[in-house]
Design brief:
By secondary structure, this protein is of the alpha+beta class. The protein is 38% helix and 26% strand. Helix 4 (168-177) packs across helix 14, helix 5 (227-239) crosses helix 10 (309-325) and helix 8 (278-288) packs antiparallel against helix 9 (294-305).
Length: 429
């Protein structure tokens, strides 16, 4: 069997291909039924231990359930892929055990590996795995070699002895190519949780005649902006004010804002738990007595102390999905003691994400210019990944290439499926 593994910032997927035919996407059990993706999260619950007393990590939906039902002693972690470029993040201590970043990633990869092996004829020891076109650090510098080295170590720790990395948009291209009967020049745009990646490639029957399949690739590009950045904009502009983002207080005769770093944590739900420490809670309670909008600081304290960050971001994700279908949505969040309610229009949302949209458009233009490819020479634009459903994202490509050239599909499984097809090309005897 040939295995393609899409370890993602927000969601992961794995697919298995035989010697011919379509790839099969592994299914994961959830309370709502089988799912083709696995949420890339881990939980460490002090009550969940093995016979030797060691804390057993929980993965995906089990991790989220343990976190939501826990008593505050459950640690939830996610977005590991975003830290691959961070030389400062080498490990973390969880309930008395230290885990390297590679250890945490290996736990998810192991889960994916077991699901790929289940019912498919044996253990998985080699895979083709996805990677973004650019691993971009927070400072903007590229850290491809460092990040790939860490990923390779993580896969090895998960028991995978041989891993070949493939650009995620190229994998999505192989997914799109399945039904082609004629050759096409295709721009593939893959929008993940942490990155947006692009590939210009020649696809179709003619690719099989090339000495090397990769010779069909005209060029690639990527930018460290995607769905998570859109969520952060909703939190900052849509609901941040409810939690005191615009509140001020007087100190030594000066009017000062509530410290911005607090709301930086608020914009990443898995960082909200970092605010639940005595020093920060004391600061917020002191500010609550001084600010011009104390009720907003009370709401922020409730969000932190009642561990409601995950619930808040589920509401943010729902709002983003609603705005892909409608011109406005009512953002409703009610988890005692926190209540948020406001109308958000699509026009507002598009204004909030305008900087990200501009960066995406600039990356596409750079790819076209760098490869000397005029827009008219592109036969098809294939959009995939969750944020490809955002109308303002689609509008970038409709404006540049024409709406008639746009295709979409496999938003959450195209990369894993394409990686399995690539594994067949790489590993077939």
């Amino acid at each position: 069997m040939y295995v393609g593994m899409d370890f993602g910032t927000t969601n992961s997927a794995v697919a298995v291909a035989g010697r011919q035919g379509a790839a099969k996407i592994a299914q994961f059990s959830t309370a709502a039924g089988p799912a083709s993706t696995l949420r890339s999260v881990l939980a460490f619950d002090r009550h969940h231990r093995d016979a030797a007393g060691r804390v057993l990590p929980l993965v995906g939906p089990e991790a989220i359930d343990a976190y939501l039902q826990g008593d505050g002693e459950c640690r939830l972690l996610q977005s590991f892929k975003s830290y691959l470029t961070s030389r400062a993040f080498t490990g973390t201590s969880i309930l008395g055990t230290t885990y390297a970043l590679e250890d945490l990633i290996a736990l998810i990869v192991t889960h994916l590996r077991h699901h790929a092996a289940s019912g498919n004829g044996g253990p998985v020891e080699r895979v083709v795995a996805g990677r973004p076109v650019r691993f971009v650090a927070e400072g903007g510098e590229e850290e491809d070699d460092f990040a790939i080295g860490r990923l390779r170590d993580a896969f090895a720790k998960a028991g995978i002895g041989e891993v070949v990395f493939e650009y995620e948009p190229i994998a999505a291209a192989y997914y799109y190519e399945r039904d082609l009967t004629d050759d096409e020049t295709v721009l593939v745009a893959d929008f993940g949780g942490g990155t947006s990646d692009f590939c210009l490639i020649r696809l179709g029957p003619g690719r099989a005649g090339l000495n090397r399949p990769e010779d069909a690739i005209i060029g690639t590009g990527g930018v460290g902006i995607a769905g998570d950045a859109f969520d952060r904009r909703i939190v900052r502009h849509g609901v941040g004010g409810h939690f005191g983002r615009d509140a001020t207080f007087e100190s030594n005769g000066k009017i000062l804002p509530v410290p911005a770093w607090i709301y930086g944590k608020l914009e990443r739900w898995h960082h909200i738990g970092f605010l639940n420490v005595p020093s920060t809670l004391r600061l917020l309670r002191d500010l609550e007595r001084k600010v011009d909008r104390p009720e907003q600081l009370q709401q922020l304290l409730g969000l932190i102390e009642y561990n409601l960050g995950y619930h808040l971001y589920r509401a943010v994700e729902r709002a983003k999905r609603d705005l892909s279908q409608a011109e406005a949505t009512d953002f409703i969040f009610h988890h005692d003691p926190v209540t948020v309610g406001r109308r958000i229009t699509r026009a507002e949302f598009e204004g909030w994400i305008a900087p990200e949209l501009g960066a995406i458009e600039a990356c596409v233009e750079s790819l076209l210019a760098g490869t000397g490819t005029p827009a008219a020479a592109v036969d098809r634009v294939f959009l995939t990944g969750g944020s490809s459903l955002v109308p303002a994202v689609r509008a970038i490509f409709a404006s540049r290439f024409g709406a008639a050239k746009l295709s979409a599909g496999g938003e959450f499984i195209s990369v894993a499926s394409g990686l399995a097809h690539r594994a067949r090309e790489v590993f077939a005897p």
